[in-house]
Structures are given as C-alpha cells and as structure tokens.
C-alpha cells in the first residue's frame, strides 16, 4: 500500500464547481458554485494560510426538465455529471490536494464519494462519511415519490441503484452502509424509512440531537476515526435550519442552530482527518442576499480550524 501524509498537513485545497441541478426537483442549485465564490470562499480559505486553487466549473449536459422514466428523472444527465465529478475529485486526490466539490444538487456526491472510496482502496485507508442533511437520501426507484436522484445518493453509493451509477468507481458497491453517519435528518419518506432500518444505517436525526446535544452526537459519529481514516464530509445546505439558511431547494424546519452547526464543524476539525468535502444544494434563487452561501463559507472556515480562542492541547 502507498502511504499518505496527514490530510490537513498538506494545506492544499482545490475548489471544483459542479453547476448542475439535473438531480433536483427544482432549479437553482446550478448557481451554487458562483454563490460560494461571491461569498468569498477562496479568500476565506487563503486567510487561514491554505494553498487554494479554483479549478473553475466542470462541464456537463443541461437539465432537460423531463418527467421521471423508469423511476428516475434525468438519469443520463445525472450520470454524465457524476462521471466528470468522479474524475475531477479522483485526479485531485491523486495530486495530494483536498477536493472541495461545490454543487449543484446532492446527486453529485455519487461521483465525489465514489472517487474518494476508490482513492481509499488504493491507499489502504478507512473511509468515514459524515452526511450532513435534512434528508436521508436513501430512496430507490421503487420507493421514491418523485424520481429525483438527489434523494438517492446514499442508496446508490451502497449499491442500490442503476448500473451506470453504482459502478462509477469501478467497484460495486462503492461503499458499505457502515461508513455513513447521517446527521441532522428530519425528513424521510415512508418507504425510505423502512429501507433505512433494514439496511441499519447510522442516523442521528434531530430528535437524537435534541435529546443528547450536538457534542454527544458528534462524539458518536466520529468514534473510531483515527490516523488511518479518510474523513469525507458531504454537507447539504438544508442541514441548517432554514430560518438562517433559506437558500435551499428543499427546506425543512427544525434544523441545527448556528451554534450547533459551528460545534459540528469544530469537532470535525479537531480530528485533523478531513480529507475531502462536498458543499451541496445551495439555491441562490431561494436565498436572501446570498446569506446561505455566506453562512456556508463561515462554517467552512470552522472546518479548517477557525475558533473563538486558541485551545490548549491536553
């Protein structure tokens, strides 16, 4: 096996825009990458002493805005976007840089996480995925109420989906369900709920967070993360309560507060194992003065160590 240095010791970040909303139920998330740029994502990271390159936007097919066919909407278009996302993320990891994939809708994570899983297999790393989302995203063509592929990425990555998507990373399934920790979930479709239980996904829903607090939630979600772990964070902007992050396509009331979200990011940063990141589902068409993108950038800074005080190491 090849060896890698500590993921955060490289301080080399690659921003990759993926302006597609082909997997979503409403248009607008294709503008997410530019919203993040307008909110200052690159200078924010540079201010933390990081080496940052913006690779611009990937190219893919337009959104045809068709009806569902065979249980999927826009399968060909979503597959094409996921392939280019996979290739870009995989190539970035090969260059020993940390990819930040800026979506775009959450179906794009099928491409990014397939690439990360492939990378981990090649380097003998354990993979842990934190899926920060209001939704479980564990639908299949048989149980989906809409056919929108942004509601299916976790299921597809676990091997439940069309061949063209489940085989993206060269191995099927790309990941086992055991690598996922779903955090902040508060909207699950009826059929999806049964499938989540059947597959034994680790889900820390909002009731769990309400009853136990974000600190205890993150301690459990991060348990077992060590020096051999590649930590991937897939952040859906609707993870946050829509009162402070209205710029999303599928808002669900009752999400984490600003401080809960900050604590979540700070505890991820404390592990030092962050190796790759998705920022998905920002929808400027639903936003107010780009405040949701600005909040995403603020949280991103916490992922890279921003805190109120320098903390003493015990």
From TrEMBL:
InterPro entries (UniProt xref): Arginase, Ureohydrolase, Ureohydrolase_dom_sf
GO MF annotation terms: arginase activity; manganese ion binding
Domain of life per record: Bacteria
Xref: CDD domains: Arginase (cd09989)
UniProt keyword annotations, A-Z: Arginine metabolism, Hydrolase, Manganese, Metal-binding
Protein's pathway: Nitrogen metabolism; urea cycle; L-ornithine and urea from L-arginine: step 1/1
GO cellular component labels: cytoplasm
Names of required cofactors: Mn(2+)
Sequence positions that bind Mn(2+): 106, 133, 135, 137, 236, 238
Catalytic activity: L-arginine + H2O = urea + L-ornithine
SUPFAM superfamilies xref list: Arginase/deacetylase (SSF52768)
PROSITE patterns per UniProt: ARGINASE_2
One BP term from GO: arginine metabolic process
Cofactor notes: Binds 2 manganese ions per subunit.
Family annotation (Gene3D superfamilies): Ureohydrolase domain (3.40.800.10)
Enzyme nomenclature, EC number: 3.5.3.1
Enzyme class name: hydrolase
Database matches in PANTHER family: ARGINASE (PTHR43782)
Family: Belongs to the arginase family.
Listed NCBIfam families: rocF_arginase
Name of the molecule in the record: Arginase
């Amino acid at each position: 096996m090849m060896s890698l240095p500590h993921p955060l010791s490289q301080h080399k970040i690659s921003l990759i825009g993926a302006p597609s909303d082909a997997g979503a139920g409403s248009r607008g998330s294709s503008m997410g990458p530019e919203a993040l740029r307008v909110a200052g994502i690159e200078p924010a990271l540079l201010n933390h002493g990081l080496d940052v390159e913006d690779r611009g936007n990937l190219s893919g097919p337009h959104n045809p805005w068709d009806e569902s066919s065979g249980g999927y909407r826009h399968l060909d278009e979503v597959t094409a976007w996921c392939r280019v996302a996979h290739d870009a993320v995989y190539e970035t990891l090969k260059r020993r840089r940390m990819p930040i994939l800026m979506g775009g809708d959450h179906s794009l994570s099928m491409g990014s996480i397939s690439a990360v899983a492939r990378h981990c297999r090649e380097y003998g790393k354990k993979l842990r995925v934190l899926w920060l989302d209001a939704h479980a995203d564990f639908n299949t063509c048989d149980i989906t109420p809409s056919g929108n592929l942004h509601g299916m990425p976790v299921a597809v990555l676990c091997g439940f989906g069309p061949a063209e998507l489940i085989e993206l990373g060269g191995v099927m399934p790309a990941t086992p369900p055991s690598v996922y920790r779903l955090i902040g979930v508060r909207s699950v479709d009826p059929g999806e709920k049964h499938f989540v239980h059947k597959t034994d996904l680790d889900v820390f829903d909002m009731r769990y967070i309400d009853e136990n607090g974000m600190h205890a939630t993150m301690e459990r979600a991060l348990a077992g993360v060590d020096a051999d772990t590649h930590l991937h964070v897939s952040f859906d902007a609707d993870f946050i309560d829509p009162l402070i992050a209205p710029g999303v396509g599928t808002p669900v009331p009752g999400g984490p507060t600003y401080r809960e979200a900050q604590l979540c990011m700070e505890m991820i940063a404390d592990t030092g194992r962050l190796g790759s990141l998705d920022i998905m589902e920002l929808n400027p068409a639903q936003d107010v003065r780009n405040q949701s993108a600005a909040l995403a950038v603020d949280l991103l800074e916490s992922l890279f160590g921003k805190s109120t005080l320098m903390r003493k190491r015990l």
